[in-house]
Amino acid sequence: MNTEIKDKLAAEFEAANFFEKIPAEIEGFTLKKILADDGDKFIYFTYENVSTHRNFTAYFHTETMEYKARVKIGLTEFCLTNFFTDNFERFIQNLNAEMSDAIKNLAEPADAESDILIADKKFSEWSYGQSLPKNIADFELFITPKNPVKITNGSYIIINYGNFAQNCDFSIIYNVYKDNFSGESQIDGVNHPSYIFDAKDLKALEFILEQNLVKTLKISTSV
Predict the structure, then answer these.
(1) Model confidence pLDDT, tens digit, residues 185-214
(2) Which residues, including other chains, have CB under 8 Å from residue 187's CB and lie 6 or more apart?
(3) Which residue did the predictor score with more confidence, 163 or 218?
(4) Please, what is the Cα angle at 207 between 170 and 173, to 5 degrees?
(5) CB under 8 Å, gap of 24 or more: what pairs does 83-89 form?
(6) How are beta strands 190-199 and 139-143 bridged, if at all?
(7) Other beta carbons less than 10 A from residue 69's beta carbon
(8) For 73-116, what is each residue's pLDDT tens digit?
(9) pLDDT, mean over the chain
(10) pLDDT, tens digit, for every residue of 55-70?
(11) 34: Cβ–Cβ under 8 A, 6 or more apart, which residues?
């Protein structure tokens, strides 16, 4: 990103006096002022809770010429489409109106039964999901079926084991449109689908997990 664009974006943001209007902390998330480029993105700021591995980031994306916000939960990162706009004033309005709620949602993960799209799956009642080990190899259980994380395109992470020291994880994902489950590993920011975890229902998924979960995580640790 060239200096002229960076200076323009920084000046535009500073002129709005936004930092003077927002708190240093929201729901345990601490404000970090950045105003610097990161590849094709100019990062304005982030609210981060280091201990829970979650953050909210506001930025400008030069590839699409839009102002955006994204969240990161563990190693999973995705955009919040309700913040997308090509108008700076509207972006500031969106942040003022919706940022606090977005961060609160990060701080208080929703129960599976409270989401109408997946309530009938009864993930929180799944006995296998309730008995998942807290640690496998160098991975820790980060997301459970009781508190799945809604990401994009109708998908929910219902199980996630993370190895944050090595920047890798493994997830079981449910998609409401396909009504199926799949597995995916992430290593240094690169996603690797694990097709052996494809399943149509919890019973089938449970059998696959019993046969392959520990083995998959132990292999991931050795990569």
Answers:
(1) 999 889 899 999 999 999 999 999 999 999
(2) 167, 168, 220, 223
(3) 163
(4) 35
(5) 83/58, 88/12, 88/16
(6) unpaired
(7) 21
(8) 999 999 999 999 999 999 999 999 999 999 999 998 888 888 88
(9) 94
(10) 999 999 999 999 999 9
(11) 43, 44, 45, 46
With residue 213 as reference, give the H or E element that holds it: helix 202-222
pLDDT value for 223: 52
Residue in 45, 44, 40, 43 with CA at minimum distance from that of residue 1: 40
- Whether residue 206 contacts residue 145, with contact meaning beta carbons closer than 8 Å, is answered with no
Q: Are 55 and 49 in contact (CB under 8 A)?
A: yes
Contact 194, 171 (CB under 8 A): no
Q: How many CB atoms lie within 10 A of CB 35?
A: 15
Which residue shows structure tokens 């290593």?
Answer: 187
- C-alpha closest to that of 190 among 169, 211, 175, 173: 169
**Token digits for 169?**
């994880």
Tokens of 157: 């992470």
Residue 95: which H helix or E strand, with range?
helix 88-107
Give the tokens for residue 73.
């939960």
Distance CA 57, CA 31 (A): 10
Q: What is the SS3 assignment for 117? A: coil
Q: Give the strand pairing for 180-187 and 135-136.
A: unpaired
Residue that the structure tokens 């997830």 belong to? 171
pTM for this predicted structure: 0.90
Q: How far apart are CA 96 and CA 90, in angstroms?
A: 10
What's the confidence (pLDDT) of residue 121?
93
Left (φ > 0), alpha (ψ -120 to 50) or beta: where does 61 sit? beta
